[in-house]
Amino acid sequence: MAQSRTTEHCVQMPAHGAGQGKTAAPTPEKQLNCFVRCIALIERLGNALGTLAFTWATVVLLGGYPTALSSKDFRYATAIVSLEAARMFSRNNRLDYQLLFRTRGAVRPLGWNGLTVIVPAAIIRIVLASLRLGSHSYYGDDGHLDKRNPGDKTNLVPSLNIFYGMVLGQGALYIAACMLDIFSFIPQRSLARQGGYADDDRLLRKISGQALTMLAMDSVNNCLTMLRETGYVFIKELTSIIRVDRYRCVAASLLRSMCLHAQQELEESDQRELSYALREVLERTLIADGAELEIFIGLSSQICKVIPEDLAKELEDSHIKQRFVMRLVDVLNSYTEPSPHCPGIRRVILEQAINMMEHDSRYTNCFIDRHMAEALSMVEETVSEAENYSLFLGDVGLMEAREPLSSLMARAKQLLAVR
Protein backbone atom coordinates (compact mmCIF):
# COMPACT_ATOMS: atom_id res chain seq x y z
CA MET A 1 0.00 0.00 0.00
CA ALA A 2 1.34 3.41 -0.88
CA GLN A 3 2.29 5.58 2.06
CA SER A 4 2.16 9.11 0.69
CA ARG A 5 -0.04 11.42 -1.30
CA THR A 6 1.02 13.12 -4.49
CA THR A 7 0.51 16.83 -5.09
CA GLU A 8 1.35 16.67 -8.76
CA HIS A 9 -2.13 17.56 -9.96
CA CYS A 10 -3.24 20.00 -7.27
CA VAL A 11 -4.45 23.45 -8.30
CA GLN A 12 -2.04 25.99 -6.80
CA MET A 13 -3.78 29.29 -6.00
CA PRO A 14 -3.02 31.97 -3.44
CA ALA A 15 -4.90 31.72 -0.16
CA HIS A 16 -5.75 35.06 1.43
CA GLY A 17 -6.40 35.82 5.04
CA ALA A 18 -4.77 32.70 6.44
CA GLY A 19 -3.89 33.05 10.09
CA GLN A 20 -0.33 32.72 11.30
CA GLY A 21 0.60 30.14 13.89
CA LYS A 22 -2.79 28.45 13.78
CA THR A 23 -4.01 25.25 12.24
CA ALA A 24 -5.27 26.39 8.87
CA ALA A 25 -8.72 25.41 7.70
CA PRO A 26 -8.98 23.68 4.33
CA THR A 27 -8.11 26.25 1.68
CA PRO A 28 -10.55 26.95 -1.17
CA GLU A 29 -8.26 25.32 -3.73
CA LYS A 30 -8.00 22.14 -1.61
CA GLN A 31 -11.78 21.96 -1.41
CA LEU A 32 -11.97 22.36 -5.16
CA ASN A 33 -9.28 19.71 -5.69
CA CYS A 34 -11.38 17.28 -3.66
CA PHE A 35 -14.46 18.15 -5.74
CA VAL A 36 -12.63 17.62 -9.05
CA ARG A 37 -11.08 14.35 -7.90
CA CYS A 38 -14.48 13.04 -6.80
CA ILE A 39 -16.08 13.77 -10.17
CA ALA A 40 -13.19 12.24 -12.11
CA LEU A 41 -13.15 9.11 -9.97
CA ILE A 42 -16.94 8.69 -10.18
CA GLU A 43 -16.76 9.00 -13.97
CA ARG A 44 -13.91 6.48 -14.20
CA LEU A 45 -15.77 4.01 -11.98
CA GLY A 46 -18.87 4.38 -14.15
CA ASN A 47 -16.91 3.69 -17.30
CA ALA A 48 -15.20 0.70 -15.68
CA LEU A 49 -18.55 -0.78 -14.60
CA GLY A 50 -19.93 -0.23 -18.10
CA THR A 51 -17.02 -2.00 -19.75
CA LEU A 52 -17.23 -4.86 -17.24
CA ALA A 53 -20.99 -5.18 -17.75
CA PHE A 54 -20.50 -5.24 -21.54
CA THR A 55 -17.93 -8.03 -21.21
CA TRP A 56 -20.07 -9.93 -18.71
CA ALA A 57 -23.11 -9.77 -20.99
CA THR A 58 -21.32 -10.86 -24.15
CA VAL A 59 -19.12 -13.56 -22.60
CA VAL A 60 -21.09 -14.92 -19.63
CA LEU A 61 -24.75 -14.31 -20.52
CA LEU A 62 -25.07 -14.26 -24.29
CA GLY A 63 -22.11 -16.60 -24.66
CA GLY A 64 -22.76 -18.99 -21.77
CA TYR A 65 -26.57 -19.00 -21.54
CA PRO A 66 -27.80 -18.26 -25.09
CA THR A 67 -30.66 -20.76 -24.88
CA ALA A 68 -31.29 -20.57 -21.13
CA LEU A 69 -32.07 -16.85 -21.04
CA SER A 70 -35.74 -15.95 -21.05
CA SER A 71 -36.90 -13.90 -24.01
CA LYS A 72 -37.28 -10.87 -21.73
CA ASP A 73 -33.75 -11.11 -20.31
CA PHE A 74 -32.37 -11.67 -23.80
CA ARG A 75 -34.05 -8.46 -25.00
CA TYR A 76 -32.94 -6.48 -21.94
CA ALA A 77 -29.35 -7.72 -22.16
CA THR A 78 -29.22 -6.98 -25.89
CA ALA A 79 -30.57 -3.46 -25.38
CA ILE A 80 -28.06 -2.73 -22.61
CA VAL A 81 -25.17 -4.18 -24.62
CA SER A 82 -26.18 -2.06 -27.63
CA LEU A 83 -26.35 1.05 -25.45
CA GLU A 84 -22.92 0.37 -24.00
CA ALA A 85 -21.46 -0.46 -27.42
CA ALA A 86 -22.67 2.91 -28.68
CA ARG A 87 -20.73 4.58 -25.88
CA MET A 88 -17.61 2.46 -26.26
CA PHE A 89 -17.28 2.27 -30.02
CA SER A 90 -19.59 4.45 -32.09
CA ARG A 91 -18.48 7.65 -30.33
CA ASN A 92 -14.93 6.44 -29.80
CA ASN A 93 -15.42 6.36 -26.04
CA ARG A 94 -15.83 10.14 -26.11
CA LEU A 95 -17.81 10.15 -22.86
CA ASP A 96 -14.66 9.16 -21.00
CA TYR A 97 -13.93 12.85 -20.60
CA GLN A 98 -16.93 14.64 -22.09
CA LEU A 99 -19.00 13.49 -19.13
CA LEU A 100 -17.37 16.37 -17.29
CA PHE A 101 -15.68 18.74 -19.70
CA ARG A 102 -15.41 19.57 -23.38
CA THR A 103 -12.42 21.12 -25.12
CA ARG A 104 -12.74 23.09 -28.30
CA GLY A 105 -10.48 26.10 -28.21
CA ALA A 106 -11.18 26.84 -24.56
CA VAL A 107 -12.17 24.29 -21.93
CA ARG A 108 -15.80 24.58 -20.98
CA PRO A 109 -18.34 22.60 -18.94
CA LEU A 110 -20.31 19.89 -20.66
CA GLY A 111 -23.50 21.98 -20.57
CA TRP A 112 -27.13 21.07 -21.18
CA ASN A 113 -26.56 19.64 -24.67
CA GLY A 114 -24.18 17.04 -23.26
CA LEU A 115 -26.36 16.34 -20.26
CA THR A 116 -29.38 15.68 -22.48
CA VAL A 117 -27.45 12.81 -24.02
CA ILE A 118 -25.86 11.34 -20.90
CA VAL A 119 -28.74 11.62 -18.43
CA PRO A 120 -31.37 9.78 -20.55
CA ALA A 121 -28.90 6.99 -21.29
CA ALA A 122 -28.14 6.66 -17.59
CA ILE A 123 -31.86 6.62 -16.73
CA ILE A 124 -32.48 3.87 -19.30
CA ARG A 125 -29.75 1.77 -17.67
CA ILE A 126 -31.25 2.29 -14.21
CA VAL A 127 -34.82 1.52 -15.32
CA LEU A 128 -33.95 -1.64 -17.27
CA ALA A 129 -31.76 -3.00 -14.48
CA SER A 130 -34.26 -2.13 -11.74
CA LEU A 131 -37.16 -3.80 -13.56
CA ARG A 132 -35.34 -7.10 -13.80
CA LEU A 133 -33.77 -6.98 -10.34
CA GLY A 134 -37.17 -6.17 -8.88
CA SER A 135 -39.11 -8.96 -10.60
CA HIS A 136 -36.33 -11.55 -10.15
CA SER A 137 -38.16 -13.95 -12.54
CA TYR A 138 -35.31 -15.22 -14.65
CA TYR A 139 -36.62 -18.68 -15.58
CA GLY A 140 -39.09 -17.78 -18.26
CA ASP A 141 -42.75 -18.65 -18.19
CA ASP A 142 -42.54 -21.37 -15.48
CA GLY A 143 -40.92 -18.93 -13.07
CA HIS A 144 -38.92 -21.63 -11.27
CA LEU A 145 -35.94 -23.92 -11.68
CA ASP A 146 -36.14 -27.70 -11.46
CA LYS A 147 -33.26 -28.25 -8.98
CA ARG A 148 -33.11 -31.97 -9.81
CA ASN A 149 -32.55 -31.19 -13.48
CA PRO A 150 -31.18 -27.65 -13.77
CA GLY A 151 -29.84 -28.25 -17.26
CA ASP A 152 -27.96 -25.28 -18.63
CA LYS A 153 -29.49 -22.83 -16.10
CA THR A 154 -26.96 -23.47 -13.32
CA ASN A 155 -25.76 -20.15 -11.83
CA LEU A 156 -28.08 -18.23 -14.14
CA VAL A 157 -29.64 -16.19 -11.32
CA PRO A 158 -26.37 -14.94 -9.76
CA SER A 159 -24.99 -14.22 -13.24
CA LEU A 160 -27.99 -12.05 -14.10
CA ASN A 161 -27.96 -10.37 -10.68
CA ILE A 162 -24.31 -9.43 -11.13
CA PHE A 163 -24.97 -8.09 -14.64
CA TYR A 164 -28.00 -5.98 -13.71
CA GLY A 165 -26.24 -4.81 -10.55
CA MET A 166 -23.30 -3.50 -12.57
CA VAL A 167 -25.63 -1.76 -15.02
CA LEU A 168 -27.58 -0.18 -12.16
CA GLY A 169 -24.34 0.98 -10.55
CA GLN A 170 -23.07 2.47 -13.81
CA GLY A 171 -26.25 4.44 -14.36
CA ALA A 172 -26.27 5.70 -10.78
CA LEU A 173 -22.64 6.83 -11.01
CA TYR A 174 -23.31 8.70 -14.26
CA ILE A 175 -26.30 10.46 -12.70
CA ALA A 176 -24.19 11.40 -9.66
CA ALA A 177 -21.41 12.79 -11.87
CA CYS A 178 -23.88 14.79 -13.93
CA MET A 179 -25.49 16.23 -10.81
CA LEU A 180 -22.07 17.28 -9.54
CA ASP A 181 -21.38 18.85 -12.93
CA ILE A 182 -24.64 20.81 -12.76
CA PHE A 183 -23.79 22.17 -9.30
CA SER A 184 -20.09 22.73 -10.08
CA PHE A 185 -20.72 26.49 -10.09
CA ILE A 186 -20.95 26.42 -6.27
CA PRO A 187 -17.28 25.56 -5.48
CA GLN A 188 -16.15 27.58 -8.51
CA ARG A 189 -17.80 30.75 -7.28
CA SER A 190 -16.77 30.05 -3.70
CA LEU A 191 -13.15 29.78 -4.76
CA ALA A 192 -13.45 32.88 -6.92
CA ARG A 193 -14.83 34.83 -3.96
CA GLN A 194 -12.44 33.50 -1.31
CA GLY A 195 -9.35 33.43 -3.51
CA GLY A 196 -9.82 36.94 -4.90
CA TYR A 197 -10.60 35.93 -8.49
CA ALA A 198 -12.96 38.14 -10.50
CA ASP A 199 -12.48 36.49 -13.86
CA ASP A 200 -14.72 33.40 -13.85
CA ASP A 201 -13.56 32.33 -17.32
CA ARG A 202 -9.92 32.31 -16.19
CA LEU A 203 -10.85 30.32 -13.10
CA LEU A 204 -12.91 27.88 -15.16
CA ARG A 205 -9.98 27.24 -17.49
CA LYS A 206 -7.77 26.32 -14.56
CA ILE A 207 -10.36 24.11 -12.89
CA SER A 208 -11.19 22.33 -16.15
CA GLY A 209 -7.52 21.96 -17.00
CA GLN A 210 -6.94 20.09 -13.77
CA ALA A 211 -9.89 17.80 -14.45
CA LEU A 212 -8.58 17.06 -17.95
CA THR A 213 -5.18 16.32 -16.43
CA MET A 214 -6.78 13.73 -14.17
CA LEU A 215 -8.68 12.14 -17.05
CA ALA A 216 -5.60 12.07 -19.32
CA MET A 217 -3.55 10.13 -16.79
CA ASP A 218 -2.86 6.62 -18.05
CA SER A 219 -5.71 6.79 -20.60
CA VAL A 220 -4.92 6.43 -24.30
CA ASN A 221 -8.57 6.86 -25.30
CA ASN A 222 -9.00 10.11 -23.39
CA CYS A 223 -5.79 11.59 -24.79
CA LEU A 224 -6.71 10.68 -28.37
CA THR A 225 -10.19 12.11 -27.92
CA MET A 226 -8.84 15.40 -26.59
CA LEU A 227 -6.61 15.69 -29.66
CA ARG A 228 -9.41 14.95 -32.11
CA GLU A 229 -12.08 17.05 -30.43
CA THR A 230 -9.91 20.16 -30.57
CA GLY A 231 -9.17 19.76 -34.27
CA TYR A 232 -5.58 18.75 -33.51
CA VAL A 233 -4.65 22.18 -32.13
CA PHE A 234 -4.48 20.94 -28.55
CA ILE A 235 -0.67 20.66 -28.51
CA LYS A 236 -0.30 24.18 -29.90
CA GLU A 237 -2.59 25.59 -27.22
CA LEU A 238 -0.81 23.73 -24.43
CA THR A 239 2.67 24.83 -25.56
CA SER A 240 1.38 28.39 -25.52
CA ILE A 241 -0.28 28.07 -22.11
CA ILE A 242 2.85 26.52 -20.60
CA ARG A 243 4.44 29.98 -20.59
CA VAL A 244 1.67 31.39 -18.39
CA ASP A 245 2.55 31.04 -14.71
CA ARG A 246 -0.92 30.22 -13.42
CA TYR A 247 -1.48 27.42 -15.97
CA ARG A 248 2.10 26.19 -16.35
CA CYS A 249 1.94 22.97 -14.30
CA VAL A 250 -1.46 21.92 -15.63
CA ALA A 251 -0.36 22.46 -19.24
CA ALA A 252 2.91 20.59 -18.66
CA SER A 253 1.06 17.62 -17.12
CA LEU A 254 -1.32 17.44 -20.07
CA LEU A 255 1.55 17.69 -22.56
CA ARG A 256 3.31 14.85 -20.80
CA SER A 257 0.21 12.64 -21.08
CA MET A 258 -0.21 13.55 -24.76
CA CYS A 259 3.40 12.61 -25.54
CA LEU A 260 3.09 9.39 -23.56
CA HIS A 261 -0.29 8.12 -24.76
CA ALA A 262 -0.91 9.81 -28.13
CA GLN A 263 2.56 9.84 -29.68
CA GLN A 264 1.44 8.02 -32.83
CA GLU A 265 -1.29 10.60 -33.43
CA LEU A 266 1.01 13.61 -33.10
CA GLU A 267 1.40 15.33 -36.45
CA GLU A 268 4.47 17.14 -37.76
CA SER A 269 2.99 20.47 -36.66
CA ASP A 270 2.56 19.08 -33.12
CA GLN A 271 6.19 18.01 -33.04
CA ARG A 272 7.24 21.49 -34.16
CA GLU A 273 5.24 23.03 -31.31
CA LEU A 274 6.93 20.70 -28.85
CA SER A 275 10.30 21.69 -30.27
CA TYR A 276 9.46 25.40 -29.86
CA ALA A 277 8.55 24.75 -26.20
CA LEU A 278 11.71 22.81 -25.43
CA ARG A 279 13.74 25.77 -24.20
CA GLU A 280 11.00 26.78 -21.77
CA VAL A 281 10.72 23.19 -20.52
CA LEU A 282 14.48 22.82 -20.01
CA GLU A 283 14.77 26.19 -18.30
CA ARG A 284 11.98 25.30 -15.88
CA THR A 285 13.75 22.01 -15.16
CA LEU A 286 16.89 23.92 -14.19
CA ILE A 287 15.19 26.33 -11.78
CA ALA A 288 12.02 24.64 -10.50
CA ASP A 289 11.78 22.47 -7.42
CA GLY A 290 9.36 20.12 -5.70
CA ALA A 291 6.21 19.02 -7.51
CA GLU A 292 6.77 21.49 -10.38
CA LEU A 293 10.23 20.05 -11.00
CA GLU A 294 8.77 16.53 -11.09
CA ILE A 295 6.22 17.61 -13.70
CA PHE A 296 8.77 19.28 -15.97
CA ILE A 297 11.34 16.48 -15.79
CA GLY A 298 8.54 14.09 -16.66
CA LEU A 299 7.58 16.27 -19.63
CA SER A 300 11.16 16.62 -20.92
CA SER A 301 11.54 12.85 -20.64
CA GLN A 302 8.52 12.24 -22.86
CA ILE A 303 9.56 14.93 -25.35
CA CYS A 304 12.91 13.12 -25.55
CA LYS A 305 11.04 10.01 -26.74
CA VAL A 306 8.97 11.92 -29.31
CA ILE A 307 11.68 14.19 -30.78
CA PRO A 308 15.03 13.04 -29.35
CA GLU A 309 17.09 14.87 -32.01
CA ASP A 310 15.45 18.19 -31.13
CA LEU A 311 16.17 17.73 -27.43
CA ALA A 312 19.82 16.93 -28.15
CA LYS A 313 20.11 19.96 -30.43
CA GLU A 314 18.54 22.29 -27.86
CA LEU A 315 20.91 21.06 -25.15
CA GLU A 316 23.89 21.64 -27.42
CA ASP A 317 22.76 25.00 -28.82
CA SER A 318 21.94 26.34 -25.38
CA HIS A 319 25.25 25.03 -23.98
CA ILE A 320 23.45 23.41 -21.07
CA LYS A 321 24.05 19.70 -21.71
CA GLN A 322 26.49 19.25 -18.83
CA ARG A 323 24.43 21.51 -16.60
CA PHE A 324 21.25 19.58 -17.38
CA VAL A 325 22.86 16.19 -16.66
CA MET A 326 24.37 17.55 -13.44
CA ARG A 327 20.97 18.92 -12.44
CA LEU A 328 19.35 15.48 -12.83
CA VAL A 329 22.05 13.76 -10.76
CA ASP A 330 22.07 16.47 -8.09
CA VAL A 331 18.29 16.30 -7.67
CA LEU A 332 18.44 12.52 -7.44
CA ASN A 333 21.13 12.80 -4.76
CA SER A 334 19.07 15.37 -2.86
CA TYR A 335 16.17 12.92 -2.52
CA THR A 336 17.91 10.36 -0.34
CA GLU A 337 14.45 9.09 0.59
CA PRO A 338 11.06 9.20 -1.19
CA SER A 339 9.30 12.55 -0.82
CA PRO A 340 5.66 12.67 0.32
CA HIS A 341 5.21 15.89 -1.67
CA CYS A 342 6.52 14.54 -4.99
CA PRO A 343 6.72 10.74 -4.77
CA GLY A 344 7.37 10.36 -8.50
CA ILE A 345 10.41 12.62 -8.84
CA ARG A 346 13.02 9.86 -8.64
CA ARG A 347 11.09 7.84 -11.22
CA VAL A 348 10.95 10.67 -13.78
CA ILE A 349 14.67 11.36 -13.34
CA LEU A 350 15.47 7.73 -14.11
CA GLU A 351 13.15 7.80 -17.12
CA GLN A 352 14.84 10.96 -18.42
CA ALA A 353 18.33 9.50 -17.99
CA ILE A 354 17.35 6.22 -19.67
CA ASN A 355 15.75 7.97 -22.64
CA MET A 356 18.83 10.15 -23.15
CA MET A 357 21.31 7.27 -22.88
CA GLU A 358 19.27 5.03 -25.18
CA HIS A 359 19.16 7.77 -27.80
CA ASP A 360 22.85 8.68 -27.68
CA SER A 361 25.58 6.72 -25.90
CA ARG A 362 27.55 9.94 -25.39
CA TYR A 363 25.11 10.85 -22.65
CA THR A 364 26.18 7.68 -20.85
CA ASN A 365 29.66 9.12 -20.36
CA CYS A 366 28.14 12.37 -19.10
CA PHE A 367 26.14 10.52 -16.45
CA ILE A 368 29.13 8.38 -15.49
CA ASP A 369 31.27 11.48 -15.04
CA ARG A 370 28.59 12.92 -12.73
CA HIS A 371 28.56 9.73 -10.61
CA MET A 372 25.08 8.61 -11.61
CA ALA A 373 25.86 5.02 -10.58
CA GLU A 374 26.44 6.07 -6.97
CA ALA A 375 23.16 7.96 -6.96
CA LEU A 376 21.36 4.86 -8.25
CA SER A 377 22.82 2.77 -5.43
CA MET A 378 21.37 5.23 -2.92
CA VAL A 379 17.94 5.08 -4.56
CA GLU A 380 18.03 1.29 -4.59
CA GLU A 381 18.37 1.22 -0.80
CA THR A 382 15.38 3.48 -0.15
CA VAL A 383 12.75 2.39 -2.68
CA SER A 384 9.17 2.88 -1.49
CA GLU A 385 6.01 1.22 -2.73
CA ALA A 386 4.48 4.70 -3.11
CA GLU A 387 6.93 5.42 -5.93
CA ASN A 388 5.15 2.85 -8.07
CA TYR A 389 1.92 4.88 -8.11
CA SER A 390 0.98 8.09 -9.90
CA LEU A 391 -2.41 8.80 -8.26
CA PHE A 392 -3.43 8.56 -4.64
CA LEU A 393 -6.61 8.71 -2.60
CA GLY A 394 -5.42 9.54 0.90
CA ASP A 395 -2.67 7.01 1.60
CA VAL A 396 -3.91 4.45 -0.93
CA GLY A 397 -2.27 4.19 -4.36
CA LEU A 398 -4.91 4.01 -7.09
CA MET A 399 -2.99 4.13 -10.36
CA GLU A 400 0.04 1.86 -10.56
CA ALA A 401 2.88 2.64 -12.96
CA ARG A 402 3.40 0.26 -15.85
CA GLU A 403 7.04 -0.34 -14.95
CA PRO A 404 8.18 -0.64 -11.31
CA LEU A 405 10.96 1.61 -10.10
CA SER A 406 13.23 -1.39 -9.53
CA SER A 407 13.01 -2.25 -13.23
CA LEU A 408 13.94 1.30 -14.22
CA MET A 409 16.96 1.15 -11.93
CA ALA A 410 18.09 -2.11 -13.49
CA ARG A 411 17.83 -0.60 -16.99
CA ALA A 412 19.76 2.51 -15.96
CA LYS A 413 22.52 0.44 -14.35
CA GLN A 414 22.80 -1.71 -17.45
CA LEU A 415 23.18 1.36 -19.67
CA LEU A 416 25.78 2.88 -17.37
CA ALA A 417 27.77 -0.36 -17.45
CA VAL A 418 28.17 -0.09 -21.25
CA ARG A 419 30.38 2.79 -22.34
Write up what this structure looks like:
Strand 3 and strand 4 form a beta hairpin. This protein has two domains: 150 residues, no CATH class; 199 residues, Leucine-rich Repeat Variant. It starts with 27 loop residues before the first helix and ends with a helix. The strands form two sheets. The protein has a two-stranded antiparallel ribbon with strand order 1-2. The protein has a two-stranded antiparallel sheet with strand order 3-4. The N terminus is likely disordered. The protein is elongated. The protein is 67% helix and 4% strand. With 419 residues, the protein is mainly α.
Question: What percentage of amino acids are in beta strands?
Answer: under 5%
The end-to-end distance, rounded to whole angstroms, is 38 Å
Strand order of the largest sheet: 1-2
Look up the CATH topology of the largest domain.
Leucine-rich Repeat Variant
Global structural class: mainly alpha
CATH class (first level) name of the largest domain: Mainly Alpha
**Largest β sheet strand count, sense and barrel closure:** 2 strands, antiparallel
Give a brief outline of the structure:
With 419 residues, the chain is mostly helical. It is built from 18 helices and four strands.
Question: What structural keywords apply?
Answer:
two-stranded antiparallel sheet, 2 domains, 18 helices, mainly alpha, elongated, 4 strands, two-stranded antiparallel ribbon, disordered N terminus, single chain, 67% helix, Leucine-rich Repeat Variant, 419 residues
